[in-house]
Predict the structure.
Amino acid sequence: MPPNATPAILSVQSARLGFDRPVLGPLSVDVPNGARWALTGPNGVGKSLLLKAVTGQARVHGGRLHLAPNVDVSLLGQDHPRRQPWPLSGHDWFRAMGATAPDQPRIQALLHRRLDRLSGGQWQLLRLAAALHSGSAQPSRERLVLLDEPANHLDAEVRGDAVSLIAALPANATLVMTSHDDDFLRAIGVENHPLEGYFDAG
Amino acid sequence: MLGDLLLVPFVAGLLVTAVLALAGAGLFLRGSVWQALALGQWAAAGGVLASVLHWPVLPVALALGAGVMALLQRTPDRERLPLAVFLAGLAAVTLLAANFSQASLAAAAWAEGQLYFAGPQELWAVAALALASLVLVLGLLKVWRHAQLAPDVPATPAPAAWLRLTEIAWLVAAIVLGSMVLGLPAALASLLLPAWGAAHLARNLRGHFLWAQSLALAGFLIAWSLSLPLDQPFAPVLVLVNVVLALAARMVAMWR
């Protein structure tokens, strides 16, 4: 590492990832602390799988995936189907995620409503806010926020709120997200990193 | 209203109903309805087997219930495997009843329920479980809240392994003891129907637990006050009352 380089919060070295068997890799990537990254690439390239491997939902079959010490990781999964009926309110969701709800009026308005009665866009916005604020009550620990296609289901009404929420992420938190929505990525101002560029040669 | 003979069954029934309502709300949140059916059926199979072997009923029923739960926890399949295990338990009870006369009597008792014959032993067991439920309730809520999140992941730690194991052990004890005291159909009706009705009425998670308790206890009291004067077996009356209450809860939720 060069002397002034930012240390990596996530370091992946020649890792082969998958569920029951490896389906991705080997790939090597270091995500610097405080980065704002968007992993891009076609469907099936392995963006979601990499995020799942970081949270332990997928397995590392070879190589190494290392998180810096004292890092709390939160993940917004790509899709979260809601059961019907589902007797949880917005408040319940934030509590389950270990998050404090932000002051944004549109989020505050959703806190008392049942999750199964929100529109798809409102549900996505609420989940996004909770993932972004999960663990924020512990400023002494570093945070890695992973967002898998956060622009999914966002309608015009809530899209601006989603952009504001992500843009307001504090500088000491690191963001790694995936998205196929170029306009959304531009609005947030993240660095694009095509995942294919991190596969090991040969 | 309650003679000395019926006081113990009444209190035991009321306590186990409250425990089952809590367990039912948890199972509803976990989406584990079929697991409850399989577990209850194998608890009954354990009770019937114990009668054949002249062993104490509760430990055998608990052991088989725990074995089934351990098996079902090892697979993500929440429907087909639990259904197969439930059917296997049903077949085991039927075969035991067909081949052993004492098993036939025991199977009938588990199917029909024998709340009126609950004695101090059942009451103490249920009281201990109710007390344990009070002690554990905050931890149980933590496990059930966390179970709602996947595929999302919070930055806060997941419930500890010992707490998740305790929750499973507590569920096994609740379903086994509930089936032993109320009979399998009545226990399942107290477990599943109030939680389902409550899920339509509640505004949030806390409301879900409170409504589940209210519907389950109301069902028990209505069934008790109907079955005794009408000289009917308690368990089927309780099942029907809980069905009516759950459907009424759903209709009320649709109208408001």
The first helix of chain A runs from residue 47 to 55. Residues 21 and 68 of chain A are 26 Å apart (CA to CA). Chain A has one domain: 8-198. The two ends of chain A are 24 Å apart (CA to CA).
